[in-house]
Amino acid sequence: MDITTMRIVATLASLACFVGIWWWAYARRNQARFDEAAQLPFLED
Q1: Residue 32 half-sphere exposure, CB side, CA atoms within 13 Å?
Q2: Across residues 33-38, what is the average pLDDT?
Q3: 2-29, pLDDT tens digit by residue?
Q4: What is the end-to-end Cα distance of the chain in Å, rounded?
Q5: The whole model's pTM is what?
Q6: CB of 20 within 8 A of CB of 12?
Q7: From what superkingdom does this record's organism come (predicted)?
Q8: Tell me, what's the pLDDT at 44?
Q9: What is the mean pLDDT of residues 21-41?
Q10: How far, in Å, CA of 31 to CA of 25, rounded?
């Protein structure tokens, strides 16, 4: 395995991680939890 192949593999792995995180963040089942977390700074003690 030469350096170019390793760079391609690393790039594809990074892209897969990015798409996975993006999919997780925008999944509908997480929307309520993220909306609640977004309001935490505005809640009074």
Answers
A1: 1
A2: 90
A3: 999 999 999 999 999 999 999 998 888 9
A4: 58
A5: 0.66
A6: no
A7: Bacteria
A8: 79
A9: 91
A10: 8
Whether residue 39 is predicted with pLDDT greater than 70 in this model: the reply is yes
Gap between the Cα atoms of 17 and 10, Å rounded? 11
- 3-class SS at 20? helix
Tokens matching residue 38? 């977004």
Note whether 25 and 34 are within 8 A (CB): yes
Q: Which two tokens stand for residue 27?
A: 């999944």
Report the distance separating Cα 15 and Cα 28, nearest Å: 22
Q: What is the DSSP letter of 42?
A: G
